[in-house]
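Why should sequence recovery work at all? Because a backbone constrains its sequence more than one might expect. Tight turns favour small or flexible residues, buried strands favour hydrophobic ones, and helices have their own preferences. The token representation captures these environments compactly. In the example below, the structure is given first.
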């Protein structure tokens, strides 16, 4: 099977698969294009043509995840071997206070992954918990942090759930 056959077979279905998840036509076009570039580039790695559909859609899922990771408010550090400078977050209203006020199980994970720069797998080993548990705690932590920023600092959320706007709380005025 070649790239043209994959295009002819999955073009429309793949495009709408991406659009349904991204909900933005420009982003969908970018992800769609990147997906087909990766398909073309890695076509020789496809060992079983009977699994081409699963392979194509897995590439698309990875591209969608990459897209959302790039847009995420809290992304994993690129270089996870070095500690992240604390001043990176100083311009974010109430950040330190909100991190400190997280329940201990969430605070530990956020500190290890986003402040100290450990990979999630390393944090799981350090805390002696599963990787899935680390991911769940990070997700819950982000939800708590967004809620705190929204209620205390009057930030708003955009359509992707990212914080936007300027701080508007008494605690931020001296900042």
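From this structural description, the recovered sequence reads:
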């Amino acid at each position: 099977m070649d790239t043209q056959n994959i295009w002819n077979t999955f073009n429309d279905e793949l495009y709408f698969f991406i659009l349904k998840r991204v909900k933005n036509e420009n982003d969908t076009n970018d992800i769609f294009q990147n997906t087909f570039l990766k398909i073309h580039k890695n076509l020789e790695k496809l060992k079983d043509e009977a699994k081409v559909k699963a392979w194509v859609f897995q590439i698309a899922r990875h591209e969608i995840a990459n897209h959302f990771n790039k847009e995420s408010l809290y992304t994993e550090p690129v270089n996870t071997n070095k500690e992240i400078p604390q001043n990176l977050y100083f311009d974010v209203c109430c950040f330190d206070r909100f991190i400190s006020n997280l329940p201990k199980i969430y605070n530990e994970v956020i500190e290890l992954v986003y402040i100290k720069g450990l990979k999630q797998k390393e944090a799981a080993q350090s805390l002696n918990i599963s990787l899935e548990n680390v991911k769940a705690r990070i997700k819950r932590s982000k939800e708590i942090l967004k809620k705190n920023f929204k209620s205390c600092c009057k930030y708003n959320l955009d359509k992707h759930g990212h914080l936007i706007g300027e701080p508007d709380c008494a605690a931020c005025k001296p900042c």
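A few observations help interpret the result. The first strand starts at residue 156 and ends at 157.
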